[in-house]
Amino acid sequence: PNSIGRRSGDTVSDSMAAATDSTASSERTPLAKADAVQVYSCEDVRAVTSLHHSLLSNYPGTRTVGQVLEEYATVLHRAASTDDASARVQVSNWCPPDEQKKPFTLELARRTIEREHGFEEPPTEAQRAAPMDPDFEAAVTLALSGDIAGLTALLDTHPHLTTARSPFGHRATLLHYLASNGVETWRQVVPLNVADVARLLVARGADVDATMTVYGGEFTAGGLLESSAHPRDAGVLDALRPVLCPE
């Protein structure tokens, strides 16, 4: 298993909102204030984030899982029909090679997006009808933005989030998102204080032995970390490893 690949335009951006910011400079930007957190993102991830900006600018809103998947698929299908480079990132990473040789229909776009969200088989009607959890998604965004204060405040109000799971097929926990591997492409970013974020979650009860379903198996956050390009390229692998892989 591996995360979305590294390319020449990888960057570290200065923004607490960098997890959803597709406009980051290709050069390192000075900190705007003392407590700002820099967030690493690779060019491919930023391209996919930009492609789906209309959805992510109001995410998740009141959408169900099925509505999120359908919006993603519609945009991907439209972009792929014009050979958009951003669409190629998702197709190359989440559509099996034999299927990439076929005409890229809307149905194939749907299956590509479903796989990206951990559904190896088409989701059931019950899975599609499941509501997105705004609190969980807010926690993911705060964690991936490195916003310790904001995440702490949210966990104070909703302590169950440390062990909550995504409604998507992979069933990732917050710790899994910190490994930046096997989750939604746009979520594969790394705050440079990610080890501190992980320590906060563990201190609040997050289970390092919890597994998510991806790549045809079950993986802990620590297991996914070892094959993830992003924490290594961000220079935080050695700091994060002992938190996610305690002896």
How would you describe what is shown here?
- By secondary structure, this protein is mostly helical.
- The protein is 47% helix and 7% strand.
- The chain has 14 helices and 5 strands.
- The chain has a 3-stranded antiparallel β-sheet with strand order 1-2-3. Strands 4-5 form a two-stranded antiparallel sheet.
- Residues 15-34 have low confidence and may be disordered.
How many DSSP E strands?
5
The average pLDDT score comes to 89
Going by helix content, strand content and strand pairing, the class is mainly alpha
The ordered H/E elements are EEHHHHHHHHHHEHEEHHH
Q: Report the principal-axis shape.
A: globular
Major sheet characteristics:
3 strands, antiparallel
**Which percent bin holds the helix content?**
40-55%
N- to C-terminal distance: 23 Å
Keywords, separated by commas or semicolons:
47% helix, mainly alpha, 247 residues, single chain, three-stranded antiparallel sheet, 7% strand, 14 helices
Put the structure in a nutshell.
This protein is mainly alpha-helical.
List the SSEs and their pairings:
Layout: E1 11-14, E2 38-41, H1 43-51, H2 53-56, H3 65-80, H4 85-94, H5 97-100, H6 106-116, H7 125-129, H8 134-144, H9 148-157, H10 174-179, E3 190-191, H11 194-203, E4 211-214, E5 217-220, H12 221-225, H13 229-234, H14 237-244
Antiparallel strand pairs: 1-2, 2-3, 4-5
